[in-house]
Protein backbone atom coordinates (compact mmCIF):
# COMPACT_ATOMS: atom_id res chain seq x y z
CA UNK A 1 0.00 0.00 0.00
CA UNK A 2 2.88 2.36 0.74
CA UNK A 3 4.28 1.60 -2.71
CA UNK A 4 1.11 3.09 -4.20
CA UNK A 5 2.39 6.49 -3.02
CA UNK A 6 5.72 6.18 -4.84
CA UNK A 7 4.83 8.82 -7.49
CA UNK A 8 4.24 11.26 -4.61
CA UNK A 9 7.48 10.52 -2.75
CA UNK A 10 8.80 14.09 -3.02
CA UNK A 11 5.53 15.55 -1.69
CA UNK A 12 5.46 13.14 1.25
CA UNK A 13 9.12 13.88 2.02
CA UNK A 14 8.33 17.60 2.08
CA UNK A 15 5.33 16.93 4.31
CA UNK A 16 7.46 14.90 6.74
CA UNK A 17 10.05 17.69 6.83
CA UNK A 18 7.37 20.28 7.53
CA UNK A 19 5.87 18.04 10.20
CA UNK A 20 9.27 17.72 11.85
CA UNK A 21 9.64 21.53 11.78
CA UNK A 22 6.18 21.97 13.33
CA UNK A 23 6.74 19.38 16.06
CA UNK A 24 10.28 20.57 16.73
CA UNK A 25 9.03 24.17 17.00
CA UNK A 26 6.44 23.07 19.57
CA UNK A 27 9.08 21.35 21.70
CA UNK A 28 11.54 24.21 21.29
CA UNK A 29 8.81 26.72 22.16
CA UNK A 30 8.26 25.15 25.58
CA UNK A 31 12.00 24.81 26.14
CA UNK A 32 12.65 28.47 25.30
CA UNK A 33 9.65 29.52 27.42
CA UNK A 34 11.10 27.55 30.32
CA UNK A 35 14.45 29.29 29.92
CA UNK A 36 12.73 32.69 29.66
CA UNK A 37 10.67 32.21 32.83
CA UNK A 38 13.56 30.79 34.82
CA UNK A 39 15.91 33.53 33.64
CA UNK A 40 13.33 36.23 34.35
CA UNK A 41 13.15 35.02 37.94
CA UNK A 42 16.77 36.23 38.34
CA UNK A 43 15.69 39.81 37.32
CA UNK A 44 18.30 40.32 34.58
CA UNK A 45 18.35 43.37 32.28
CA UNK A 46 15.54 43.27 29.73
CA UNK A 47 18.07 43.11 26.94
CA UNK A 48 19.17 39.68 28.22
CA UNK A 49 15.67 38.37 27.54
CA UNK A 50 15.03 40.03 24.18
CA UNK A 51 16.42 37.19 22.09
CA UNK A 52 14.31 34.62 23.97
CA UNK A 53 11.21 36.80 23.61
CA UNK A 54 11.72 37.09 19.85
CA UNK A 55 12.47 33.35 19.61
CA UNK A 56 9.26 32.54 21.47
CA UNK A 57 7.21 34.60 19.04
CA UNK A 58 9.05 33.16 16.05
CA UNK A 59 8.62 29.57 17.22
CA UNK A 60 4.92 30.12 17.89
CA UNK A 61 4.38 31.45 14.38
CA UNK A 62 6.62 28.77 12.82
CA UNK A 63 4.72 26.02 14.61
CA UNK A 64 1.35 27.14 13.25
CA UNK A 65 2.54 27.87 9.71
CA UNK A 66 4.57 24.64 9.44
CA UNK A 67 1.68 22.56 10.79
CA UNK A 68 -0.69 24.11 8.25
CA UNK A 69 1.73 23.54 5.39
CA UNK A 70 2.43 19.98 6.57
CA UNK A 71 -1.30 19.14 6.58
CA UNK A 72 -1.74 20.83 3.21
CA UNK A 73 1.15 18.97 1.54
CA UNK A 74 0.58 15.52 3.07
CA UNK A 75 -3.19 15.60 2.52
CA UNK A 76 -2.70 16.80 -1.05
CA UNK A 77 -0.30 13.91 -1.70
CA UNK A 78 -2.59 11.42 0.06
CA UNK A 79 -5.70 12.54 -1.84
CA UNK A 80 -3.84 12.42 -5.16
CA UNK A 81 -2.64 8.92 -4.30
CA UNK A 82 -6.17 7.95 -3.27
CA UNK A 83 -7.47 9.24 -6.60
CA UNK A 84 -4.86 7.14 -8.41
CA UNK A 85 -5.89 4.08 -6.41
CA UNK A 86 -9.56 4.63 -7.20
CA UNK A 87 -8.72 4.96 -10.89
CA UNK A 88 -6.79 1.68 -10.73
CA UNK A 89 -9.70 -0.04 -9.01
CA UNK A 90 -12.26 1.24 -11.54
CA UNK A 91 -9.96 0.38 -14.44
CA UNK A 92 -9.72 -3.14 -13.04
CA UNK A 93 -13.49 -3.36 -12.60
CA UNK A 94 -14.01 -1.98 -16.11
CA UNK A 95 -12.79 -5.34 -17.38
CA UNK A 96 -16.08 -6.64 -15.95
CA UNK A 97 -15.06 -10.07 -14.76
CA UNK A 98 -13.95 -9.06 -11.20
CA UNK A 99 -17.40 -7.60 -10.56
CA UNK A 100 -18.93 -11.05 -10.81
CA UNK A 101 -16.55 -12.50 -8.20
CA UNK A 102 -17.73 -10.37 -5.28
CA UNK A 103 -21.08 -9.76 -3.64
CA UNK A 104 -22.39 -6.31 -4.51
CA UNK A 105 -22.45 -4.98 -0.93
CA UNK A 106 -19.00 -6.36 -0.21
CA UNK A 107 -17.70 -4.79 -3.42
CA UNK A 108 -19.12 -1.41 -2.36
CA UNK A 109 -17.28 -1.74 0.96
CA UNK A 110 -14.04 -2.53 -0.88
CA UNK A 111 -14.52 0.45 -3.19
CA UNK A 112 -15.21 2.92 -0.39
CA UNK A 113 -13.97 1.95 3.09
CA UNK A 114 -11.10 -0.30 2.08
CA UNK A 115 -9.85 2.11 -0.57
CA UNK A 116 -9.99 4.98 1.94
CA UNK A 117 -7.68 2.94 4.20
CA UNK A 118 -4.88 3.92 1.80
CA UNK A 119 -5.39 7.54 2.83
CA UNK A 120 -5.38 6.61 6.55
CA UNK A 121 -2.15 4.70 6.15
CA UNK A 122 -0.35 7.49 4.34
CA UNK A 123 -1.54 10.38 6.52
CA UNK A 124 -1.65 8.71 9.94
CA UNK A 125 0.54 5.68 9.51
CA UNK A 126 3.44 6.89 7.36
CA UNK A 127 4.09 10.54 8.24
CA UNK A 128 3.89 10.47 12.10
CA UNK A 129 6.55 7.74 12.63
CA UNK A 130 8.96 9.48 10.27
CA UNK A 131 8.34 12.83 11.94
CA UNK A 132 8.82 11.20 15.34
CA UNK A 133 12.13 9.69 14.24
CA UNK A 134 13.51 12.99 12.98
CA UNK A 135 12.29 15.21 15.81
CA UNK A 136 12.86 12.70 18.58
CA UNK A 137 16.46 12.17 17.54
CA UNK A 138 17.11 15.91 17.51
CA UNK A 139 15.50 16.50 20.94
CA UNK A 140 17.31 13.57 22.58
CA UNK A 141 20.60 14.85 21.17
CA UNK A 142 19.92 18.33 22.61
CA UNK A 143 18.99 16.99 26.05
CA UNK A 144 22.00 14.68 26.09
CA UNK A 145 24.28 17.64 25.41
CA UNK A 146 22.47 19.62 28.12
CA UNK A 147 22.51 16.81 30.72
CA UNK A 148 23.68 13.31 29.77
CA UNK A 149 21.58 11.27 32.24
CA UNK A 150 18.50 13.32 31.36
CA UNK A 151 19.05 12.81 27.62
CA UNK A 152 19.47 9.06 28.04
CA UNK A 153 16.37 8.93 30.24
CA UNK A 154 14.38 10.87 27.66
CA UNK A 155 15.59 8.53 24.90
CA UNK A 156 14.45 5.52 26.92
CA UNK A 157 11.06 7.11 27.61
CA UNK A 158 10.51 7.97 23.95
CA UNK A 159 11.44 4.44 22.90
CA UNK A 160 8.93 3.03 25.39
CA UNK A 161 6.14 5.41 24.35
CA UNK A 162 7.00 5.51 20.62
CA UNK A 163 8.01 1.89 20.00
CA UNK A 164 7.06 -0.49 22.82
CA UNK A 165 3.54 0.85 23.43
CA UNK A 166 2.68 0.99 19.69
CA UNK A 167 4.00 -2.55 19.20
CA UNK A 168 1.75 -3.83 21.99
CA UNK A 169 -1.19 -1.85 20.56
CA UNK A 170 -0.50 -3.26 17.08
CA UNK A 171 -0.37 -6.82 18.42
CA UNK A 172 -3.62 -6.37 20.34
CA UNK A 173 -5.34 -4.71 17.36
CA UNK A 174 -4.28 -7.14 14.64
CA UNK A 175 -7.12 -9.67 14.95
CA UNK A 176 -9.87 -7.16 15.85
CA UNK A 177 -8.78 -5.07 12.88
CA UNK A 178 -9.23 -7.97 10.49
CA UNK A 179 -12.61 -8.79 11.99
CA UNK A 180 -13.62 -5.14 11.73
CA UNK A 181 -12.87 -5.05 8.00
CA UNK A 182 -14.87 -8.23 7.45
CA UNK A 183 -17.72 -6.95 9.63
CA UNK A 184 -17.87 -3.72 7.65
CA UNK A 185 -18.16 -5.72 4.44
CA UNK A 186 -20.84 -7.96 5.96
CA UNK A 187 -22.89 -4.96 7.10
CA UNK A 188 -22.65 -3.36 3.66
CA UNK A 189 -23.65 -6.63 2.00
CA UNK A 190 -26.61 -7.20 4.33
CA UNK A 191 -27.83 -3.63 3.87
CA UNK A 192 -27.53 -3.66 0.06
CA UNK A 193 -29.22 -7.08 -0.18
CA UNK A 194 -32.08 -5.89 2.02
CA UNK A 195 -32.60 -2.67 0.06
CA UNK A 196 -32.49 -4.28 -3.38
CA UNK A 197 -34.49 -7.31 -2.32
CA UNK A 198 -37.11 -5.37 -0.34
CA UNK A 199 -40.09 -6.18 -2.64
CA UNK A 200 -39.41 -9.93 -2.57
CA UNK A 201 -38.62 -9.90 1.15
CA UNK A 202 -41.93 -8.18 1.89
CA UNK A 203 -43.85 -10.48 -0.48
CA UNK A 204 -42.53 -13.62 1.24
CA UNK A 205 -42.66 -12.28 4.79
CA UNK A 206 -38.89 -12.40 5.15
CA UNK A 207 -38.24 -8.71 5.80
CA UNK A 208 -37.97 -9.16 9.57
CA UNK A 209 -35.25 -11.79 9.15
CA UNK A 210 -33.37 -9.54 6.72
CA UNK A 211 -33.58 -6.59 9.12
CA UNK A 212 -32.33 -8.77 11.97
CA UNK A 213 -29.39 -9.77 9.80
CA UNK A 214 -28.56 -6.10 9.28
CA UNK A 215 -28.93 -5.45 13.01
CA UNK A 216 -26.64 -8.36 13.91
CA UNK A 217 -24.01 -7.12 11.47
CA UNK A 218 -24.31 -3.61 12.91
CA UNK A 219 -24.03 -4.92 16.47
CA UNK A 220 -20.90 -6.87 15.58
CA UNK A 221 -19.29 -3.83 13.95
CA UNK A 222 -20.27 -1.68 16.96
CA UNK A 223 -18.76 -4.24 19.35
CA UNK A 224 -15.51 -4.25 17.39
CA UNK A 225 -15.52 -0.43 17.29
CA UNK A 226 -15.84 -0.38 21.10
CA UNK A 227 -12.88 -2.70 21.37
CA UNK A 228 -11.01 -0.43 19.01
CA UNK A 229 -11.78 2.48 21.35
CA UNK A 230 -10.45 0.47 24.28
CA UNK A 231 -7.20 -0.04 22.40
CA UNK A 232 -7.01 3.69 21.68
CA UNK A 233 -7.57 4.36 25.36
CA UNK A 234 -4.86 1.87 26.30
CA UNK A 235 -2.39 3.58 23.99
CA UNK A 236 -3.22 7.05 25.29
CA UNK A 237 -3.10 5.90 28.91
CA UNK A 238 0.17 4.02 28.52
CA UNK A 239 1.75 7.02 26.80
CA UNK A 240 0.59 9.32 29.60
CA UNK A 241 1.99 6.92 32.18
CA UNK A 242 5.38 6.74 30.46
CA UNK A 243 5.35 10.53 30.06
CA UNK A 244 4.65 11.11 33.75
CA UNK A 245 7.26 8.63 34.94
CA UNK A 246 9.90 10.03 32.59
CA UNK A 247 9.22 13.63 33.64
CA UNK A 248 9.35 12.69 37.35
CA UNK A 249 12.58 10.77 36.85
CA UNK A 250 14.12 13.67 34.91
CA UNK A 251 13.05 16.06 37.68
CA UNK A 252 14.58 13.88 40.39
CA UNK A 253 17.84 13.44 38.47
CA UNK A 254 17.95 17.14 37.66
CA UNK A 255 17.32 18.28 41.23
CA UNK A 256 20.09 15.97 42.45
CA UNK A 257 22.42 17.36 39.77
CA UNK A 258 21.58 20.96 40.72
CA UNK A 259 22.29 20.17 44.38
CA UNK A 260 25.54 18.52 43.32
CA UNK A 261 26.51 21.55 41.29
CA UNK A 262 26.70 19.72 37.96
CA UNK A 263 23.56 21.33 36.49
CA UNK A 264 22.32 24.94 36.59
CA UNK A 265 18.81 25.58 37.86
CA UNK A 266 17.79 27.26 34.59
CA UNK A 267 19.00 24.22 32.66
CA UNK A 268 16.88 22.05 34.97
CA UNK A 269 13.76 23.99 33.98
CA UNK A 270 14.63 23.65 30.31
CA UNK A 271 15.32 19.91 30.70
CA UNK A 272 12.08 19.11 32.54
CA UNK A 273 9.74 21.10 30.29
CA UNK A 274 11.52 19.93 27.13
CA UNK A 275 11.08 16.35 28.35
CA UNK A 276 7.38 16.98 28.94
CA UNK A 277 6.93 18.55 25.49
CA UNK A 278 8.89 15.80 23.74
CA UNK A 279 6.16 13.23 24.24
CA UNK A 280 3.95 15.20 21.86
CA UNK A 281 6.23 13.71 19.22
CA UNK A 282 5.14 10.11 19.88
CA UNK A 283 1.58 10.76 21.08
CA UNK A 284 -0.09 9.77 17.73
CA UNK A 285 1.84 6.50 17.32
CA UNK A 286 -0.12 4.09 19.61
CA UNK A 287 -3.42 5.02 17.95
CA UNK A 288 -1.92 4.48 14.50
CA UNK A 289 -0.42 1.14 15.56
CA UNK A 290 -3.75 -0.03 16.99
CA UNK A 291 -5.37 0.63 13.60
CA UNK A 292 -2.68 -1.10 11.56
CA UNK A 293 -4.52 -4.42 11.74
CA UNK A 294 -7.67 -2.88 10.25
CA UNK A 295 -5.64 -0.96 7.65
CA UNK A 296 -3.76 -4.11 6.65
CA UNK A 297 -6.99 -6.10 6.38
CA UNK A 298 -8.51 -3.33 4.25
CA UNK A 299 -5.41 -3.37 2.06
CA UNK A 300 -5.73 -7.13 1.55
CA UNK A 301 -9.36 -6.70 0.53
CA UNK A 302 -8.42 -3.83 -1.79
CA UNK A 303 -5.68 -5.85 -3.46
CA UNK A 304 -8.11 -8.75 -3.66
CA UNK A 305 -9.76 -6.65 -6.37
CA UNK A 306 -6.60 -5.20 -7.92
CA UNK A 307 -4.83 -8.57 -8.06
CA UNK A 308 -7.74 -10.54 -9.51
CA UNK A 309 -6.17 -12.22 -12.54
CA UNK A 310 -7.74 -10.99 -15.78
CA UNK A 311 -9.96 -13.39 -17.64
CA UNK A 312 -9.23 -11.53 -20.86
CA UNK A 313 -5.88 -10.47 -22.29
CA UNK A 314 -6.03 -7.44 -24.53
CA UNK A 315 -3.28 -6.63 -27.02
CA UNK A 316 -2.52 -2.92 -27.32
CA UNK A 317 -2.64 -3.01 -31.10
CA UNK A 318 -4.45 -5.48 -33.31
CA UNK A 319 -4.89 -6.05 -37.02
CA UNK A 320 -7.27 -3.92 -39.04
CA UNK A 321 -10.96 -4.51 -38.48
CA UNK A 322 -12.65 -6.94 -40.90
CA UNK A 323 -14.30 -5.27 -43.84
CA UNK A 324 -18.07 -4.70 -43.42
CA UNK A 325 -18.92 -7.12 -46.21
CA UNK A 326 -17.06 -9.91 -44.44
CA UNK A 327 -18.76 -10.29 -41.04
CA UNK A 328 -19.15 -14.04 -40.74
CA UNK A 329 -18.39 -15.48 -37.28
CA UNK A 330 -17.11 -18.95 -36.57
CA UNK A 331 -15.49 -20.92 -33.76
CA UNK A 332 -13.00 -23.70 -34.28
CA UNK A 333 -12.15 -26.33 -31.64
CA UNK A 334 -13.21 -23.88 -28.92
CA UNK A 335 -12.43 -25.10 -25.40
CA UNK A 336 -13.07 -23.26 -22.12
CA UNK A 337 -13.04 -24.26 -18.48
CA UNK A 338 -13.12 -22.30 -15.23
CA UNK A 339 -10.34 -24.08 -13.38
CA UNK A 340 -7.62 -26.66 -13.93
CA UNK A 341 -9.63 -29.25 -12.01
CA UNK A 342 -12.97 -28.24 -13.51
CA UNK A 343 -14.69 -30.05 -16.39
CA UNK A 344 -14.70 -28.38 -19.80
CA UNK A 345 -17.58 -25.91 -20.11
CA UNK A 346 -16.95 -25.89 -23.87
CA UNK A 347 -15.17 -28.89 -25.29
CA UNK A 348 -14.01 -28.37 -28.85
CA UNK A 349 -17.10 -26.87 -30.46
CA UNK A 350 -17.27 -25.65 -34.07
CA UNK A 351 -20.00 -23.13 -34.88
CA UNK A 352 -20.55 -21.06 -38.04
CA UNK A 353 -22.64 -17.89 -38.26
CA UNK A 354 -22.67 -16.93 -41.97
CA UNK A 355 -22.77 -13.27 -42.91
CA UNK A 356 -26.29 -11.82 -42.64
CA UNK A 357 -27.81 -15.07 -41.33
CA UNK A 358 -29.33 -15.99 -37.97
CA UNK A 359 -28.07 -19.09 -36.18
CA UNK A 360 -29.41 -20.49 -32.92
CA UNK A 361 -27.55 -22.32 -30.16
CA UNK A 362 -29.72 -24.08 -27.63
CA UNK A 363 -29.56 -26.77 -25.04
CA UNK A 364 -30.35 -27.55 -21.41
CA UNK A 365 -28.96 -25.63 -18.42
CA UNK A 366 -25.25 -26.30 -17.98
CA UNK A 367 -24.74 -27.02 -21.67
CA UNK A 368 -22.21 -24.17 -22.04
CA UNK A 369 -24.40 -21.55 -23.69
CA UNK A 370 -23.56 -18.71 -21.29
CA UNK A 371 -19.86 -19.57 -21.51
CA UNK A 372 -20.06 -19.32 -25.29
CA UNK A 373 -21.67 -15.88 -24.99
CA UNK A 374 -18.96 -14.77 -22.55
CA UNK A 375 -16.23 -15.80 -24.99
CA UNK A 376 -17.88 -14.13 -27.99
CA UNK A 377 -18.47 -10.88 -26.04
CA UNK A 378 -14.83 -11.00 -24.80
CA UNK A 379 -15.61 -11.46 -21.12
CA UNK A 380 -13.18 -14.35 -20.99
CA UNK A 381 -10.50 -15.90 -23.21
CA UNK A 382 -10.76 -19.39 -24.66
CA UNK A 383 -8.32 -21.92 -23.24
CA UNK A 384 -7.74 -23.19 -26.77
CA UNK A 385 -9.27 -22.88 -30.19
CA UNK A 386 -10.22 -19.77 -32.16
CA UNK A 387 -13.10 -17.35 -32.56
CA UNK A 388 -12.85 -15.81 -36.02
CA UNK A 389 -14.59 -12.76 -37.41
CA UNK A 390 -14.06 -12.31 -41.13
CA UNK A 391 -11.22 -14.83 -40.93
CA UNK A 392 -9.37 -12.94 -38.14
CA UNK A 393 -9.09 -14.23 -34.58
CA UNK A 394 -10.97 -11.71 -32.41
CA UNK A 395 -8.56 -12.31 -29.50
CA UNK A 396 -5.92 -10.56 -31.63
CA UNK A 397 -7.91 -7.32 -31.38
CA UNK A 398 -7.94 -5.03 -28.32
CA UNK A 399 -10.97 -5.88 -26.19
CA UNK A 400 -12.85 -2.67 -26.89
CA UNK A 401 -12.32 -3.11 -30.63
CA UNK A 402 -13.60 -6.68 -30.48
CA UNK A 403 -16.69 -5.53 -28.61
CA UNK A 404 -17.36 -2.98 -31.33
CA UNK A 405 -17.48 -5.83 -33.83
CA UNK A 406 -19.48 -8.26 -31.68
CA UNK A 407 -22.15 -6.97 -29.29
CA UNK A 408 -25.62 -7.97 -28.25
CA UNK A 409 -28.32 -8.33 -25.63
CA UNK A 410 -27.32 -10.14 -22.42
CA UNK A 411 -29.64 -12.40 -20.48
CA UNK A 412 -30.36 -9.69 -17.90
CA UNK A 413 -29.56 -6.32 -19.54
CA UNK A 414 -28.85 -3.43 -17.20
CA UNK A 415 -31.12 -0.44 -17.58
CA UNK A 416 -29.66 2.66 -15.98
CA UNK A 417 -31.68 4.93 -13.72
CA UNK A 418 -32.08 7.68 -16.28
CA UNK A 419 -34.13 8.51 -19.36
CA UNK A 420 -34.79 6.37 -22.40
CA UNK A 421 -32.63 8.75 -24.44
CA UNK A 422 -29.60 8.42 -22.16
CA UNK A 423 -29.96 4.63 -21.97
CA UNK A 424 -29.90 4.48 -25.77
CA UNK A 425 -27.05 6.97 -26.19
CA UNK A 426 -24.86 4.80 -23.98
CA UNK A 427 -24.04 2.88 -27.17
CA UNK A 428 -23.69 5.97 -29.37
CA UNK A 429 -23.15 9.18 -27.34
CA UNK A 430 -23.30 11.41 -30.42
CA UNK A 431 -26.47 9.85 -31.87
CA UNK A 432 -29.23 12.24 -32.91
CA UNK A 433 -32.89 11.70 -32.08
CA UNK A 434 -33.59 10.48 -35.61
CA UNK A 435 -31.08 7.68 -35.12
CA UNK A 436 -32.59 6.82 -31.74
CA UNK A 437 -36.10 6.58 -33.21
CA UNK A 438 -34.78 4.47 -36.09
CA UNK A 439 -33.26 2.00 -33.62
CA UNK A 440 -36.49 1.97 -31.57
CA UNK A 441 -38.53 1.22 -34.70
CA UNK A 442 -36.26 -1.70 -35.59
CA UNK A 443 -36.63 -3.02 -32.05
CA UNK A 444 -40.46 -2.62 -32.25
CA UNK A 445 -40.43 -0.16 -29.32
CA UNK A 446 -41.09 3.14 -31.11
CA UNK A 447 -44.88 2.94 -30.68
CA UNK A 448 -44.72 2.51 -26.90
CA UNK A 449 -42.17 5.29 -26.52
CA UNK A 450 -44.16 7.67 -28.71
CA UNK A 451 -47.22 7.04 -26.52
CA UNK A 452 -45.35 8.10 -23.38
CA UNK A 453 -45.95 11.73 -22.30
CA UNK A 454 -42.24 12.54 -22.21
CA UNK A 455 -41.17 10.37 -25.14
CA UNK A 456 -37.41 9.85 -25.15
CA UNK A 457 -37.14 11.91 -21.96
CA UNK A 458 -39.22 9.40 -20.00
CA UNK A 459 -37.52 8.30 -16.77
CA UNK A 460 -37.26 4.51 -16.68
CA UNK A 461 -36.87 4.20 -12.89
CA UNK A 462 -34.30 2.27 -10.91
CA UNK A 463 -33.04 -0.61 -13.08
CA UNK A 464 -35.85 0.10 -15.55
CA UNK A 465 -38.66 -0.79 -13.12
CA UNK A 466 -41.10 1.50 -14.98
CA UNK A 467 -40.74 -0.65 -18.10
CA UNK A 468 -42.13 -4.11 -18.68
CA UNK A 469 -39.79 -7.06 -19.14
CA UNK A 470 -40.40 -7.09 -22.89
CA UNK A 471 -39.75 -3.36 -23.15
CA UNK A 472 -36.45 -3.71 -21.28
CA UNK A 473 -35.32 -6.40 -23.73
CA UNK A 474 -36.35 -4.31 -26.74
CA UNK A 475 -34.60 -1.26 -25.27
CA UNK A 476 -31.43 -3.32 -24.83
CA UNK A 477 -31.71 -4.52 -28.46
CA UNK A 478 -32.18 -0.94 -29.72
CA UNK A 479 -29.09 0.05 -27.77
CA UNK A 480 -27.14 -2.81 -29.33
CA UNK A 481 -28.31 -1.84 -32.84
CA UNK A 482 -27.12 1.73 -32.27
CA UNK A 483 -23.62 0.38 -31.73
CA UNK A 484 -23.66 -0.80 -35.38
CA UNK A 485 -21.95 -4.15 -34.72
CA UNK A 486 -20.90 -6.74 -37.28
CA UNK A 487 -22.38 -9.58 -35.21
CA UNK A 488 -25.32 -9.62 -32.78
CA UNK A 489 -25.27 -12.09 -29.88
CA UNK A 490 -28.66 -12.52 -28.20
CA UNK A 491 -28.02 -14.38 -24.93
CA UNK A 492 -31.25 -15.83 -23.48
CA UNK A 493 -33.14 -12.62 -24.38
CA UNK A 494 -36.51 -13.97 -23.19
CA UNK A 495 -35.39 -15.89 -20.10
CA UNK A 496 -37.50 -13.91 -17.59
CA UNK A 497 -40.64 -13.36 -19.67
CA UNK A 498 -44.01 -15.10 -19.59
CA UNK A 499 -44.81 -17.44 -22.54
CA UNK A 500 -47.01 -15.01 -24.48
CA UNK A 501 -44.59 -12.10 -24.11
CA UNK A 502 -41.66 -14.41 -24.82
CA UNK A 503 -42.97 -15.48 -28.21
CA UNK A 504 -43.79 -11.87 -29.13
CA UNK A 505 -40.37 -10.54 -28.05
CA UNK A 506 -38.56 -13.38 -29.83
CA UNK A 507 -40.37 -12.56 -33.06
CA UNK A 508 -39.52 -8.87 -32.68
CA UNK A 509 -35.88 -9.57 -31.91
CA UNK A 510 -35.46 -11.85 -34.90
CA UNK A 511 -37.15 -9.31 -37.15
CA UNK A 512 -34.92 -6.52 -35.87
CA UNK A 513 -31.83 -8.68 -36.34
CA UNK A 514 -32.51 -9.32 -40.04
CA UNK A 515 -29.49 -8.38 -42.09
CA UNK A 516 -27.06 -8.92 -39.21
CA UNK A 517 -24.93 -11.96 -38.57
CA UNK A 518 -26.90 -13.05 -35.50
CA UNK A 519 -26.34 -15.76 -32.91
CA UNK A 520 -29.41 -16.52 -30.79
CA UNK A 521 -28.45 -18.35 -27.59
CA UNK A 522 -31.53 -19.76 -25.92
CA UNK A 523 -33.15 -22.65 -24.12
CA UNK A 524 -36.54 -21.77 -25.61
CA UNK A 525 -37.71 -23.27 -28.91
CA UNK A 526 -40.03 -20.41 -29.90
CA UNK A 527 -39.23 -18.84 -33.27
CA UNK A 528 -36.52 -21.33 -34.23
CA UNK A 529 -38.33 -22.07 -37.47
CA UNK A 530 -37.09 -18.63 -38.61
CA UNK A 531 -33.37 -19.26 -38.10
CA UNK A 532 -31.04 -20.59 -40.77
CA UNK A 533 -29.26 -23.21 -38.67
CA UNK A 534 -29.51 -24.70 -35.19
CA UNK A 535 -26.80 -26.11 -32.92
CA UNK A 536 -27.79 -28.18 -29.90
CA UNK A 537 -25.21 -28.16 -27.09
CA UNK A 538 -24.92 -30.67 -24.28
CA UNK A 539 -22.12 -30.78 -21.70
CA UNK A 540 -20.03 -28.41 -23.78
CA UNK A 541 -20.26 -30.38 -27.03
CA UNK A 542 -22.34 -30.00 -30.17
CA UNK A 543 -24.91 -32.77 -29.84
CA UNK A 544 -26.96 -31.99 -32.97
CA UNK A 545 -27.03 -29.46 -35.78
CA UNK A 546 -29.24 -28.72 -38.73
CA UNK A 547 -32.27 -26.72 -39.78
CA UNK A 548 -35.49 -26.68 -37.80
CA UNK A 549 -37.15 -28.98 -40.31
CA UNK A 550 -34.26 -31.43 -40.28
CA UNK A 551 -33.99 -31.60 -36.51
CA UNK A 552 -37.69 -31.94 -35.80
CA UNK A 553 -37.79 -35.05 -37.97
CA UNK A 554 -34.56 -36.49 -36.58
CA UNK A 555 -34.46 -38.51 -33.37
CA UNK A 556 -32.62 -36.67 -30.63
CA UNK A 557 -32.75 -33.92 -28.02
CA UNK A 558 -34.40 -31.34 -30.29
CA UNK A 559 -37.27 -33.62 -31.33
CA UNK A 560 -37.83 -34.69 -27.71
CA UNK A 561 -37.92 -31.06 -26.59
CA UNK A 562 -40.46 -30.19 -29.29
CA UNK A 563 -42.54 -33.22 -28.35
CA UNK A 564 -42.57 -32.09 -24.73
CA UNK A 565 -44.00 -28.74 -25.86
CA UNK A 566 -46.47 -30.34 -28.27
CA UNK A 567 -44.79 -28.71 -31.32
CA UNK A 568 -43.66 -31.74 -33.33
CA UNK A 569 -46.26 -31.23 -36.05
Automatic annotation (TrEMBL):
Any one Pfam family match given in the protein's UniProt record, by short name: ABC_membrane
Q: Where are the transmembrane segments?
A: 12-38, 44-62, 130-148, 154-172, 230-257
What SUPFAM superfamilies does the annotation carry?
Answer: ABC transporter transmembrane region, P-loop containing nucleoside triphosphate hydrolases
Q: Which UniProt keywords apply?
A: ATP-binding, Membrane, Nucleotide-binding, Transmembrane, Transmembrane helix
Q: How is it placed in the membrane, per its record?
A: Multi-pass membrane protein
Q: Which residues form the signal peptide?
A: none
Q: Which GO terms describe its molecular function?
A: ABC-type transporter activity; ATP binding; ATP hydrolysis activity; ATPase-coupled lipid transmembrane transporter activity
A Gene Ontology annotation in the biological process aspect, one of them, is:
cell redox homeostasis
Indicate what this protein is called per its UniProt record. Answer: Thiol reductant ABC exporter subunit CydC
Organism of origin is Halostreptopolyspora alba
Q: What is the lineage of its organism?
A: Bacteria, Bacillati, Actinomycetota, Actinomycetes, Streptosporangiales
Amino acid sequence: MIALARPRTARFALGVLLGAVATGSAVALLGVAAWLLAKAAEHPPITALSVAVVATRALGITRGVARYLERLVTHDAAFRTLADVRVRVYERLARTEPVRRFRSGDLVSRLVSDTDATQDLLIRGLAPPLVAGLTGGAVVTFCTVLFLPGGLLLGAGLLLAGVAVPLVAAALGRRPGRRQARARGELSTALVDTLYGAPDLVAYGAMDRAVRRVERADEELTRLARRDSVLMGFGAGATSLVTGLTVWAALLLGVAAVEGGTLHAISLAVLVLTTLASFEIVAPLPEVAARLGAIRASGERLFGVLDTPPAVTSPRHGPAAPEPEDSGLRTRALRVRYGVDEPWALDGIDIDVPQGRTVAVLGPSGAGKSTLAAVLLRFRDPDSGRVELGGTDITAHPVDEARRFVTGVPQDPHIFTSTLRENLRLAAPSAHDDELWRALRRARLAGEVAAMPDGLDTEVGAHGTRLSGGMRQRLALARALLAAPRVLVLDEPTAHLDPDTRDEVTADLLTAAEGYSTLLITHDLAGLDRVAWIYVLSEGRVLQQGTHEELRHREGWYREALRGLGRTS
